[in-house]
Amino acid sequence: MNKSILKELQRILGKNSLLTSWEDRACSSYDATGQSFLPDAVALPETTAQIAAILRLANEHRFPVIPRGAGSGATGGALPVAGGLVISFARMNRILEIDAANMIAVAEPGVITGELQAAVRKHGLMYPPDPASLKFCSLGGNAAECAGGPSAVKYGVTRDYIIGLEAVLPTGEIIKTGVRTEKGVVGYDLTRLLVGSEGTLAVFTKLILRLLPLPEAKSTFLLTFASLAEATKLVAEILAAGLLPCTLEFMDKTAIAAVRSRLSSPPPEDVAALLLVEFDGTADEVARQAGRFAAFVRQKGNCALRQAADEQETAELWQARRSISPAVLSLRPHKIAEDVVVPRTKIPELVAFLELLAAELNLLILSFGHAGDGNMHVNIMLDKSKAEEARRGLEAKERLFRFVLSLGGTLSGEHGIGITKSAFLPLEIDPPTLCLMRRLKQVFDPNGILNPEKIFP
Question: How far apart are CA 434 and CA 428, in angstroms?
Fold first, then answer.
């Protein structure tokens, strides 16, 4: 990126809004993958018009533009792999509107997810998507990756709550998609196309979000099992029994060990797996569901059941669950973190396969995640400085993907493809469909300047 382009960017953005020092560029060079690519510069826009001007300039001079939220992504979607300009949304972080009567909010992409949840809660409302990183991830990044979270089993994922967008196309045009109403079927559903497109089709500048009434009550249960197979089998049985938890989370023995020190009353050492199950709704609904659930579990007789006594105990259990991803690095210095999805009834087969795979390749492999919707987080722990161990880790990743697809599953439930899974995309997507996706990318981004080298192999 030459000096004349940098000068023009500075004219568009204003003083102190274009960062070019090594230190500032380094802060936007990495994400949760642990990989790092240094951009040529970092832009801190404050308006949609500035972003449109940046993209017009990028098309004229053919330099890459990479949208970046909070940098918490797990597949490299916000990494500037080809250099270029990172657009940071740190200054586009305002909640523009909360319309409590119509249960919608309008927010800029830099708003932290947990902060939006706290703001709408004051109006007796909730924004259901709840990724584990909600205290620091941003709405724009959530929209780009179609983030999920523990509540997805009942409430769905990010795409179910974004009903409209303001966005800038790679060619600089500003578009508005979707509606502010409960229904709307005018034209193609561009909102659903853009959500989950990993920053490759458009840059989001405003999000119109659907909200729900805040549940009146919650009840949280911890189930511990001596058998891994019994734990995973029970997941599908709970839902088949007509029980509808708002969360149904799974942790295997290794994941439990990683967060044991974070619990004031940790489960016994011989526990092989646990389920964290929560119900929400009106006080009457929760009491009825909780009673049915407790009776159902006791009838099974294959686990120990504990109900959280108060909000403090519930918060402790959830803190332990949300801490797994960083906590597992105490077991090995590196990890390959995958978020595969299988049909719920196939979870026992997946977990059994992981046990065999770990033994065969002499690797530490742990699993946890959103068992209620089949979205399992598989962490392959290793030391990448050891070449042979790193090779076995990559072999485990490919064999995991092939096995998941053989079960009728998918390679990603919420992390996206980015750069870490792009080589495996043809395992799941057939050639004609992949070709259509590439053609869509070409229509939106004819010069290939927006977040290049992502998704497609």
Answer: 10
Look-up: residue for tokens 């559903």?
189
Amino acid, single-letter form, for residue 287: A
> How far, in Å, CA of 117 to CA of 440, rounded?
33
DSSP state of 166: E
Show the CA angle centred on residue 198, arms to residues 194 and 201, nearest 5°.
50
Write down how long the chain is: 457
Domain that holds residue 383: 215-420
User: How many whole angstroms separate alpha carbon 34 and alpha carbon 202?
Assistant: 25
Instruction: Choose one of 161, 179, 213: the last residue of a domain.
Output: 213
Q: Do residues 391 and 251 both lie within one domain?
A: yes
Type and span of the H or E element at 256 = helix 253-259
| pTM exceeds 0.90, yes or no | yes
Distance (Å, rounded) from C-alpha 295 to C-alpha 241? 12
Residue ending a domain, among 185, 213, 241, is 213
What is the DSSP secondary structure assignment for residue 59, as one 8-state letter?
Answer: H
Q: Quick one: 322 and 377 in the same domain?
A: yes
| Residues of the chain with confidence (pLDDT) below 70 | none
Q: Give the residue ranges of DSSP H helices in 301-446.
A: 311-322, 324-327, 347-361, 387-406, 425-428, 431-444
Does residue 455 belong to any structural domain of this protein?
Answer: no
- Give the pLDDT of residue 264: 77
Number of domains in the chain: 3
Cα 364 → chain centroid = 23
Residues 347 and 231 in one domain: yes
- Sequence letter at residue 231: A
Q: Are 198 and 451 within 8 A, CB to CB?
A: yes
Tell me the pLDDT tens digit for each residue of 131-176. 989 999 999 999 999 999 999 999 999 999 999 999 999 999 999 9
Take residue 34 and report the two structure tokens written for it.
Answer: 């642990």
Q: Read off the pLDDT of residues 291-326 as tens digits, 9 standing for 90 and up.
A: 999 999 999 989 999 999 888 888 888 888 888 888
Q: Are both 164 and 243 inside the same structural domain? A: no
The answer to whether residue 23 is domain-embedded is yes
